[in-house]
Specification:
1% strand; globular; single chain; mainly alpha
Length: 362
């Protein structure tokens, strides 16, 4: 057994909570070069905390700002107005809305994931590094999304909240693995993609809500999509900083991730009854054009253009190969998406029952 004194002699730090951050910094990383790169632009992350994240407390928006206030005399009229508007929303839109809410409510999993990225973690829970403050600030903003959608669905009276709650608990218990492998490069590539995908989904649900006369839900979805858009800009800016310092390194990880497929955070969702719940939810989302294979291709094209992947110079031969591969992806994925969607148009769709909406079919 290694004593505390021996550990201190080996690592150069005390073995207690107060020096844990320093101790971890002096022990081996799986990706030491990647950690060195992200540490180099930590001052920029510090600015992002102030410029991208909103102020907290009274100056920030909260879920209650978009819902009936049950403490007011008009609470009954306001709640009736929300429910009457919700009556005009088709079941399939509610299915997608619930799926988006369940995804948001699995936030504990996502903060856990952020804390696995080497060099970006919050080892003691109150670490004052820019990365730790970003992680906690991002989480505090994202926390509002699930809260707001959950309360809206409760007040609408259109959904089986217990079935939804069971789904949330299952999803958090199951977790998910986006293939980040503790690598901050891969982590920020993933979040750059996923934040944009979430923004698209919420925005399109809001569009459908407006079409069906539910202006309150449209405003809710627009507010959440706006948050996702701000967060997207930050994660993409992190990757831009990495490209300026280690373009070969980021391209190698980007190419490797694209040879697989970006994992959707809710793909392990289940209500304990329907083993194909995620596939059925995804099918409804695609049929409503809330999030489709074409959106997947569009996001890849956006990232390639935003990071100017095709204009990078001074790469190694391996980096140039990945550059060429990545730049071909948008066109390739678009062709695959169009082919898949055209094929599905000819398929006969059999509506599925969803426990979320009291086993009605959508």
């Amino acid at each position: 057994m290694v004593t505390a004194k021996e550990y201190q002699d080996i690592c150069g730090v005390d073995f207690d909570d107060r020096t844990m951050a320093e101790r971890l910094a002096k022990t081996a990383y799986l990706y030491p070069k990647h950690v060195e790169v992200i540490a180099d632009f930590e001052p920029m992350v510090d600015r992002m905390v102030d410029e991208i994240l909103l102020e907290t407390g009274e100056k920030s928006w909260q879920p209650q700002d978009y819902l009936p206030d049950l403490s007011k005399e008009t609470w009954l009229e306001d709640t009736k107005a929300l429910r009457e508007a919700a009556e005009g929303i088709p079941d399939e839109v509610f299915v997608v809305l619930v799926g988006d809410m369940v995804t948001e409510e699995a936030l504990p999993t996502y903060q856990t994931l952020l804390n696995t990225f080497e060099g970006c973690d919050d080892p003691v829970g109150t670490t004052n590094s820019a990365w730790a403050r970003w992680s906690r600030g991002w989480t505090s903003e994202e926390n509002r999304h699930g809260d707001l959608l959950n309360k809206y669905l409760y007040l609408s009276g259109k959904c089986d909240l217990r079935s939804i709650e069971v789904t949330i608990q299952h999803l958090i218990t199951s977790g998910f693995n986006p293939g980040a492998r503790k690598d901050p490069y891969r982590g920020f590539l993933y979040t750059s993609f996923q934040e944009r995908a979430t923004k698209i989904s919420h925005g399109n649900v809001g569009r459908l809500a407006k079409t069906h006369g539910a202006g309150d839900l449209q405003r809710i979805c627009a507010k959440i999509a706006g948050d996702e858009g701000r967060h997207e800009k930050a994660y993409q800016a992190f990757c831009t900083e990495i490209l300026e310092r280690d373009p070969d390194g980021l391209l190698m990880e980007f190419g490797d991730m694209m040879r697989g497929q970006i994992v959707m955070p809710a793909e392990l969702m289940t209500d304990g009854k329907d083993s194909s719940l995620y596939e059925n939810f995804s099918t409804v989302a695609q049929r409503l054009e809330v999030y489709t294979a074409l959106d997947y291709a569009d996001i890849i094209e956006h990232l390639v253009d935003h990071w100017k992947i095709g204009e990078l110079t001074g790469l190694t031969s391996e980096g140039e190969k990945e550059q060429e591969y990545i730049c071909r992806l948008p066109k390739r994925y678009r062709k695959l998406a169009e082919r898949s969607m055209n094929k599905k148009k000819d398929d006969i769709y059999e509506p599925q029952s969803f426990g979320w909406i009291f086993d009605r079919k959508a």
